[in-house]
Design brief:
Largest sheet: 3 strands, antiparallel
Oligomer: single chain
Radius of gyration: 23 Å
Strand order of the largest sheet: 1-2-3
Length: 185
């Protein structure tokens, strides 16, 4: 029979977030595999946050067992087929926007994208989070691209190849933004 000790001894994935001094410092931990039971535990140190997380988890498990509610079990075994690496293709303008945003946050591009994805739980939420973060930068990239296109057209009518390239980039940026926003709506 599955009792409190059984659930407390399961190895749930633990997400760790270190808070900056601006945000009050310390460490926040959570078990995302617990779904609706997942909560954040804060501590000044990892050990303190871990102790708090275990206390919260114990209380939740006791309540679920008393009320005969299901307790999610870890899916860590299912992770073996995933390497944790993906190849992500994107327009250059979006790549630039992500790189600039990551630099402003003092993060690598990878850490920035992972952070944006961790803030979400579903496909629509992922797209909304990415758009919310990158929309102002994407709009600026599109504005600059269009501005460059029109400048090339008006000031240098003989620069046909540059104009065509700028136009294709502008059209692709606009098309990408429209495609993403239509999938979210």
């Amino acid at each position: 029979m599955k009792n409190l000790d059984y659930y407390m001894n399961l190895q749930y994935v633990t997400e760790v977030a270190e808070l900056s001094e601006e945000d009050g410092g310390g460490v926040v931990l959570c078990h995302p595999e617990l779904g609706r039971l997942s909560t954040n535990a804060w501590g000044e140190t990892y050990e303190e946050a871990r102790g708090m997380l275990n206390e919260i988890k114990r209380e939740q498990f006791e309540r679920c067992l008393a009320e005969n509610l299901a307790i999610p079990e870890p899916k860590s075994e299912d992770l073996r087929e995933y390497s944790g690496r993906i190849l992500l293709r994107m327009p250059r303008s979006l790549h630039k926007a992500v790189a600039e945003a990551a630099e402003e946050e003092g993060q690598s591009i990878n850490a920035y994208i992972v952070g944006a994805l961790l803030k979400t739980t579903g496909r629509g939420e992922v797209a909304n989070a990415i758009l919310e973060t990158l929309c102002p930068r994407l709009e600026e990239a599109i504005r600059v691209t269009m501005s460059n296109y029109w400048s090339a057209s008006l000031l240098n009518p003989d620069r046909t190849l540059e104009k065509q390239t700028a136009r294709r980039v502008a059209e692709h940026s606009i098309w990408s933004a429209v495609q993403v926003s239509s999938k979210i709506s």
